[in-house]
């Protein structure tokens, strides 16, 4: 049995699951089990909900400045242990530790700070009537809410949900992915030190089909904010609908990156285009996995692009010089390898990568895949329609703007697109026609936390970020006064 057993946080106390059932947690770089996480049952969820119900009225009545102070305090505690969090995140998920230090953990800190400040500055609406009445909108917390997050950006997405839920006065039942449970468990322990009242934040670890399902089904949980796969999102929607729960669903993507002949392709821009495909081993919902390139520059672009992709170093995530680490699990490794085999079967030409990477030393049994670029596949192939969520990018040529829009919009997803052009009119025109929740122009993953974040079509419903998240976690009440 590994020495580290993670705990649930219920009613302000770290607890083992009631049934004493545990799940192994693997280190993707080595394949070895290094911890166990609770495999919580519906009874654990129920205990957390009882604690949250007890805590919710007091938390809702707590002045907003005090709620903000506690969120800032939690952010301080995480920031003080940034290196430890980054190392744990890397060990748990396989991502390069340098990425966790630069992106995941600082962003988790920012999420807590951002919503702490946002809620203090939040304004309510009022509508005056000329006939002698005034309306104002009260926004009340929902009570007890559920937050369910995935494995690809574990602490980053966990805090992206719990921060607005707590800031707006709700008691929370949160579940990180069972694949990457470690940093949320550490955050839970620090939330006690930060001074959150017992029951305000509860973290129940476990499998999706068990613990997650119990959260979605629980009648006392008024809303569920979920980030994960489209398939799970559909199942959650079906379960929650008969109870009329509020739902925010942030799901998968098959995002295009579109490069026009007039784009300014400096080395730095090309690096960003490469990063948009391969950052975090391609395991970011916003990664551009279909690279559409205008035909007049296709050959020349492909050469420069491939040179950069081939230079990416797949290595031990603990090594500061690794650009790509390991795939998160053996199941996901197998899935991505199957997708590469399918790309070959569909007639795709593998321009680089296409294989697993065997490393030496402690990483011999790790789940590594070489950055893979494929061409000669039409947009309607499975490879170009299905989310792979790995280090696989397809190159697709196009002739003009109309074709680029048709190809970009031609999948079931609508999360994010990026566009590279120097033509400002084209940028605005395309921005209006691309059916995605986010369109980046001459950049990628440039995030302002005040902006609406989310996707359309099979990429989900609802938006997170800024006022959108605070609105999601509150119920508006119109008060009309006649004078
Ligand atoms: P997943 O859907 O398998 O799991 C996500 C979470 O849901 C986990 O905590 C899991 O335990 C839980 N879960 C699974 N089944 C459940 C059920 N029936 N009821 C309740 N909870 C359940 O997704 P994943 O494999 O962890 O994450 C990868 C997916 O997440 C990709 O599709 C990716 O695109 C998507 N994603 C989307 C965004 C976004 O913002 N749109 C961000 C990150 C990841």
Molecular structure report:
The chain is α/β, with parallel strands linked by helices. It has 2 domains: 4-251 and 459-482, Aldehyde Dehydrogenase, Chain A, domain 1 (3-Layer(aba) Sandwich), CATH 3.40.605.10; 256-450, Aldehyde Dehydrogenase, Chain A, domain 2. The protein is 40% helix and 23% strand. It has helices at 42-61, 64-80, 82-93, 97-120, 154-167, 182-194, 208-217, 230-240, 267-278, 298-310, 330-345, 382-385, 401-409, 424-433, 466-472, and strands spanning 4-5, 8-10, 13-15, 22-26, 33-38, 126-129, 133-141, 144-148, 171-175, 201-203, 223-227, 246-250, 255-259, 288-294, 349-352, 356-357, 368-369, 372-375, 392-398, 413-414, 416-420, 438-441, 456-457, 460-461, 474-482. A 7-stranded mixed β-sheet has the order 15-18-19-14-13-21-22, sandwiched between helices. Strands 10-9-8-11-12-24 form a 6-stranded mixed β-sheet, sandwiched between helices. A 3-stranded mixed β-sheet has the order 1-5-4, with no helix packed on it. α2 (64-80) runs antiparallel to α4 (97-120) and α4 runs parallel beside α5. The radius of gyration is 23 Å and the shape is globular.
Unreliable segments of 5+ consecutive residues: none
As a percent range, the share of strand residues is 15-25%
The CATH homologous superfamily of the largest domain is called: Aldehyde Dehydrogenase, Chain A, domain 1
CATH topology of the largest domain: Aldehyde Dehydrogenase, Chain A, domain 1
Terminal-residue CA separation: 71 Å
Strand order of the largest sheet: 15-18-19-14-13-21-22
User: What radius of gyration results from the CA coordinates?
Assistant: 23 Å
How many strands appear in the DSSP assignment?
Answer: 25
Sheet/helix structural class:
alpha/beta
Overall body shape: globular
- Average pLDDT, rounded to a whole number, is 97
* Biggest sheet details: 7 strands, mixed
Summed up, the domain count is 2
């Amino acid at each position: 049995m590994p020495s580290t057993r993670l705990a649930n946080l219920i009613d302000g106390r770290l607890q083992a699951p009631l049934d004493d059932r545990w799940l192994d947690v693997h280190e993707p770089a080595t394949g070895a089990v290094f911890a166990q996480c609770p495999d919580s049952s519906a009874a654990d969820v129920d205990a957390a909900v009882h604690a949250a119900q007890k805590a919710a009225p007091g938390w809702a009545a707590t002045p907003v400045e005090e709620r903000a102070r506690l969120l800032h305090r939690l952010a301080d505690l995480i920031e003080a242990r940034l290196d430890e969090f980054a190392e744990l995140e890397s060990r748990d998920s396989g991502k390069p530790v340098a990425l966790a230090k630069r992106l995941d953990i600082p962003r988790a800190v920012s999420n807590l700070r951002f919503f702490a400040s946002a809620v203090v500055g939040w304004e309510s609406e009022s509508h005056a009537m000329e006939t002698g009445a005034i309306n104002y909108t009260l926004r009340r917390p929902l009570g007890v809410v559920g937050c369910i997050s995935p494995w690809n950006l574990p602490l980053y997405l966990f805090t992206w949900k719990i921060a607005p839920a707590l800031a707006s006065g709700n008691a929370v039942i949160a579940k990180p992915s069972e694949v990457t449970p470690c940093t949320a468990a550490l955050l839970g322990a620090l939330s006690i030190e930060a001074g959150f009242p017992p029951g305000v934040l509860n973290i129940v670890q476990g499998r999706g089909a068990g613990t997650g399902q119990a959260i979605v089904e629980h009648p006392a949980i008024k809303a569920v904010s979920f980030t994960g796969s489209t398939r799970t999102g559909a199942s959650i929607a079906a379960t929650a609908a008969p109870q009329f729960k509020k739902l925010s669903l942030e799901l998968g993507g098959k995002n295009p990156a579109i490069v026009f002949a007039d784009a300014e392709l400096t080395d730095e821009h090309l690096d960003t285009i490469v990063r948009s495909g391969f950052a975090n081993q391609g395991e970011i919902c916003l990664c551009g996995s279909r690279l559409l390139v205008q035909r007049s520059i296709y050959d020349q672009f492909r050469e420069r692009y491939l040179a950069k992709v081939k230079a990416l170093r797949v290595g031990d995530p603990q090594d500061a010089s690794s650009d790509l680490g390991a795939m998160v699990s053996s199941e996901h490794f197998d899935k991505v390898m199957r997708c590469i085999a399918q790309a070959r079967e569909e007639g795709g030409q593998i321009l680089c990568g296409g294989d697993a990477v065997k490393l030496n030393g402690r990483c011999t049994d790790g789940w590594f895949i070489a950055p893979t670029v494929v061409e000669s596949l039409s947009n309607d192939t499975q490879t170009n329609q299905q989310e792979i969520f790995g280090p696989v990018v397809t190159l697709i040529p196009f002739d003009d703007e109309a074709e680029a829009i048709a190809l970009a919009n031609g999948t079931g997803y609508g999360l994010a697109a990026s566009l590279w052009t120097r033509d400002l009119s084209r940028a605005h025109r395309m921005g209006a026609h691309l059916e995605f929740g986010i369109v980046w122009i001459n950049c990628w993953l440039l995030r302002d936390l005040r902006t609406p974040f989310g996707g359309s079509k099979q990429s989900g419903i609802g938006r997170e970020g800024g006022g959108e998240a605070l609105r999601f976690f509150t119920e508006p009440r119109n008060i009309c006064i006649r004078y």
